[in-house]
Write a structure and sequence with these properties.
Length: 175
């Protein structure tokens, strides 16, 4: 059964007890020596995998819990090879299925603000999701402003540029 919003927010706070519980849940052990593998990337990987499975089963509320646990772990234990922005995108996609447009905007804004040069491969998708969320909320001006953030010099895929053009056209049609 999904947790309440208050329980989810509590879950975002990192605690060593939660880390121990997750390690037990995934059958992992603390490092006993510096040569032992770090269990934190495995915990985060398992959380993301489970969240993706929940999404496949259309249990989006449960998926959000797993993504939020992964975010709290990654916030406390940054891993260079796994940008936190990737999890924000996954959570935004999950929020889209739940029609939680404010959460999409919040998560995608975090990604766009942290990747101003558009170096991450998923930044364009965040831009698109954010524009769509603004449109769904009737915020045409904000959707247009989001689409205008696309760097003019960027080497973005043609399919993405066509998709963003459709969003821009929709903004003009609604105006």
């Amino acid at each position: 059964m999904p947790r309440s919003r208050q329980q989810i927010r509590k879950g975002l706070r990192y605690s060593i007890e939660k880390e121990k519980w997750l390690m037990q849940r995934f059958g992992l052990q603390f490092r006993e020596s510096p040569d032992d593998p770090d269990p934190i990337p495995l915990i985060i990987d398992n959380l993301i995998r489970e969240a993706n499975e929940w999404c496949t089963m259309e249990k989006y509320e449960w998926a959000l819990i797993e993504y939020e646990d992964a975010l709290s772990m990654l916030n406390h234990h940054p891993i260079k090879e796994l940008p936190i922005e990737a999890i924000y995108l996954l959570r935004a996609k999950c929020s889209l299925k739940m029609k939680n447009f404010q959460k999409i905007i919040q998560d995608c804004t975090l990604v766009l603000n942290s990747d101003k040069d558009w170096n991450l491969p998923f930044t364009p998708e965040c831009c698109q999701l954010k524009a769509i969320a603004h449109l769904q909320l009737g915020q045409k001006d904000l959707a247009t402003a989001t689409t205008e953030r696309i760097p003019k010099h960027s080497q973005l895929p043609e399919a993405f540029l066509e998709s963003m053009k459709r969003v821009q056209d929709e903004c003009r049609d609604e105006g």
